[in-house]
Amino acid sequence: MSSIPRFVAYAGIALAALGASTLGAPLAAAEDPPNCTPADLLGVTSGVAASESVYLHTHPDVNDFFNGFKGKSRSEIRSAIDGYMAANPDVKADLDGIRQPVTDFKERCGVAVSPIN
């Protein structure tokens, strides 16, 4: 895995997605949905990253799985994750639940935020 902490990756993706989604949008802040600022997005993604960290620390088998991707291609990683989640539906449900605040933010604010899976 990369030496960049997941939070930094989340924050970068979140800011890029929010910036791209607002290009060309009118400057009428009153029309924006509530709690959809970059600060709100970073608050949500940092909370999700912290929860994922706790989950991985308390589930060493899952942590070991995600730690084994060094040197693999993106497609190999995606395939391995898909297979692991299919074989471990409880882990998938746990991680989906942890990531739900990001999904809620995307729906409420109309932005495309894709956390690294």
Automatic annotation (TrEMBL):
Name any one GO molecular function. Answer: heme binding
Residues of the signal sequence?
1-30
Q: Which UniProt keywords apply?
A: Signal
Q: Where is the Haemophore haem-binding domain?
A: 34-110
What is the protein's given name? Hemophore-related protein
